[in-house]
DNA sequence: TCCACGCTTCGGTGGTGGCCGAAGCATCTC
DNA sequence: GAGATGCTTCGGCCACCACCGAAGCGTGGA
């Protein structure tokens, strides 16, 4: 009865090609900005905004504002399970288990807006925390004295970054861990490129570690080569 | 892309209160006639017919014509799982386990239209197959000579049932197995009541096995008491 | 054979909602 | 600060589709 209304409301949200497109794009657990989702679905920003608001209001998505972007992701494993169940039915019956995840090369290392993310980004953050260079406190991260010294030796002058928040954390959706964003995160990314420790792939946000990078990350941050 | 279209199509079918109502009414695996489903959803016959045709065409429901009635039921466990997943999300998030699951007493034993279903129905079917009394061939079941004899000794004259199909299988939604329907299934159910091996609950389709039934099923069909 | 009943098909109507352009607000960059 | 970028709100247009009444078709019973 009333149950049917609620069920229909939820299913109806998925039952629109445009919204289904956006949900499927988020199906691997990533968080994507509204603009990218609009492009994904082939619609204009206003329409996407409308749809995303509905999806969030109904609890299918949650969003995080980050600067002038707004990142959306699937709200819970239950929602993911529902999408998967619908896909199984939609795919016709020899249940092809059409499950999908982050592409491997993106999972290893990628840029998140303008800093490093993926396993690489998480490894750098972990290493800095482990060496008492950074203290993570929720969404904010503080550079500790040891961190100032380490980064200075590596070629980054943290003191010259006046802006707030100069170092923040960023939840990594494929790893479900934090990595460093903010000005410090950007500086690290930039320095990695200068040193040619990482290379960008031309047609995606994937980032791969070079041979020099493997040695460098090991020496400067104590990150085992196997992780990279 | 094309994936999203198919997903949206399936979800859209569930995303209409009227259709959701009908699907939920069929959620326990019963088969209901079109007219009853129309009443369930509070719409007229033409509208119901339209909806049911769509649901069947998309593979969510299957129908069986029986005389001038047409019985619809959920097409597959995958569809049931999908509905359940949607209900979990629709029920709000502290996952209240608002299961789209057959109530325990119904799962143990129940009537499916007019024959026995649930664990009890499946156990009887299994036992007859195991004893070479019945051969299951898809949706049809054949009574073998040993079965004629066993049922005759038990008090059922199979030969006097002229109608086709006198014995058919029926997919058991909660058990995901087959049980016996058709005229033979009805006769078995009737005989169980005569012998007082099973009792009906007044306010539901639940069926429970009596003490005499436990002994009787053990002796006549070789069904271990633990199963019941 | 006729009638009763259940389901389906056919037209027509009305409301819901997806979609966009333009304008507004917030944030980042220079 | 000024300009660029990303997202949201507003107003209006249009298509889709759920819904019904009437008529048609098939089955079962008298």
- Topology of chain A as a string of helices (H) and strands (E): HHEHHEEHHEEHEEHEEHEEH
| Head-to-tail CA distance between termini of chain A | 54 Å
Name the biggest interface: A-B, 40 and 39 residues
Main β-sheet description of chain A? 3 strands, antiparallel
Structure report:
- The structure is a homodimer of 228-residue chains.
- Chain A is elongated, with a radius of gyration of 20 Å.
- By secondary structure, chain A is α+β, with helices and mostly antiparallel strands.
- The longest helix of chain A has 14 residues.
- Chain A contains 10 helices and 11 strands.
- In chain A, strand 6 and strand 7 form a beta hairpin.
- The relative contact order of chain A is 0.11.
- The first copy, chain A, folds into 2 domains: 100 residues, Arc Repressor Mutant, subunit A (Orthogonal Bundle); 123 residues, no CATH class.
- In chain A, helix 2 packs across helix 3 and helix 3 crosses helix 4.
- A 3-stranded antiparallel beta sheet of chain A has the order 1-3-2. Chain A has a two-stranded antiparallel sheet with strand order 4-5.
- At the A-B interface, helix 1, helix 2 and helix 5 of A face helix 1, helix 2 and helix 5 of B.
- The first copy, chain A, binds a DNA duplex (30 and 30 nucleotides) through helix 4.
Keywords summarizing the entry:
homodimer, 228 residues, alpha+beta, 10 helices, 11 strands, DNA-binding
